[in-house]
Amino acid sequence: MDFNIKNMLQLRTFVLMLLLGGVFISCESDLDVTPEDDDELLADGFFENEGAYKQALAGVYANLSLTSISDPGGSNIAGLDAGTGQYIRGLFNLQNLSTDEVIWTYENDPGLRGMQRNTWSSDNPLILGVFARASYEIALANEFLRQTTTEALSGRGESEELTATIQTYRAEARVLRALANYHLLDMFGKAPSVTENDAVGFDQVPELVGVDLFNFIESELLASLPDLIAARQNEYARVNQGVANMLLAKLYLNAEVYTGTARYADCITVCETLIGSGYSLTPNYLFNFMADNNTNGAQNEIIFPISNDGTNTQNYGGTTIIIQGEVGVPENNGESLGVNATGFGGLFRVRPEFSRLFTSNPLYRNDSRNTLITADRTEEINNVGNTAEGYIITKFSNRTSTGGFGSDRTFTDTDYPLFRYADVLLMYAEATLRGGGGSTAQALGYINELRERAFGNTSGNITQSQLTLDFILDERSRELYWESHRRQDLIRFGVYSGSSYLWSYKGGPQTGTAIPQFRELFPIPNQSLSSNANLTQNAGY
Predict the structure, then answer these.
(1) pLDDT in tens, 192-218
(2) Model-level pTM?
(3) Is 407 exposed, middle or buried (0-12, 13-18, 19+ CB in 10 A)?
(4) Which domain holds residue 476?
(5) Are the beta carbons of 114 and 106 closer than 8 angstroms?
(6) DSSP conformational letter for 27
(7) What is the CATH number of the domain that holds 469?
(8) Which of the chain's termini has less CB crowding within 10 Å, N or C?
(9) DSSP states of 85-144 as a string?
């Protein structure tokens, strides 16, 4: 059974089987995100076929792509609409929309004004969507781990060969759980401390905060590594050692923010492992964001994709909302992006602070990462609701590298590159500049490798003196925009809160204003606080 959703017959079938077997979580109106206690049904029926273990693991992965097994507008988390509760859409909202990279036209949509003007509260549904979906992923992974213990497998009489295979599956599930906890650490600074060892249905669990949560994630990743398949050797879109190491590198790069203790040397060590793992930059930057990015060479650069399929994973998150949102009004350029001509009606524009990373220097006119459409548009956005103000981009596309279309004009085939090798090169350079002990000459070489890909030649190469932290921050945005890194980057560089860097509509007004430091973390949603008395609210909220 191939995990590549492009080649899967029906991922939804696997999720449905999980639901019928009791693995999939039923969330009640209080958003108590814990599994229902249907162990007997699950054990007696679902795992009669040895292939069911892989199907169950597919369900843990599926939560990163799907919101429901019923229809694109369905939600398997009560109290959340399908869009708000989709994993990648949630990351995009909190990690990009709250920064200088993008603005959402329709501010009357629930939670949007507060998010993009940095004035959110603990009742914001976008924040609830991320917290609940990540918690949902943890619960799914926990249930898979409960059902695949040595004792459980022995009780079912499973063979030694199958048991050994399932050990790899278990390592993958632990990494997926670590991924969800990493996102909770980054955005909320804490998470419910729940594992497979907690009783099913038990929701009053303590919280893990800061250093303790960091240490848990780190220990889980390190413990999983020996049981994972080597980097680039597993099936496409499945966890391997490269994915675990990428998560470790991101943890170590941001460790000073999360724990107060810098881990830049550790970041460099892991980056060096990743650099030696066989990943490579795809020659064409934009191939990373096309409908065939699972086969066009980008699979050599994308370390961990979140799969999207216009036929089998239809939902209003993932790359569907990104690509549909790129379509401009009045341009109606959807067909060039592989979707319907009008897309989602001019949903997204970029803020001028982002566009100036390309427009302020004529050099970047020839940068392949510059996908701005500027004609007949103003760079400034004086009225958020005016779709003709602000530049638009065409980075993500539902077209293939050969000019074809995805399988559907509404729902996209383009996988979301959650982690890319390009980020590894950028992390190595930054950690070196921050005193992690790497080679500055090597760091320069990695940055120029990215820029030679971007410009097609050496015209964009920089010198050692130009390689500064300020340059890295800008270059990370030019390379990684809309890939759910920007908020994290701005915080790590010390310019997210306060007034040292203002962007349009930061804090509310068009000119931007300072925001307090407590907004470097999002609040714990009120609904989540109500369902678990052991959770505490973040300071300032």
Answers:
(1) 999 999 877 666 889 999 999 999 999
(2) 0.94
(3) middle
(4) 420-497
(5) no
(6) B
(7) 1.25.40.900
(8) N
(9) T-HHHHHHIIIIITTTS-EES-TTSTTHHHHHTT---TT-HHHHHHHHHHHHHHHHHHHH
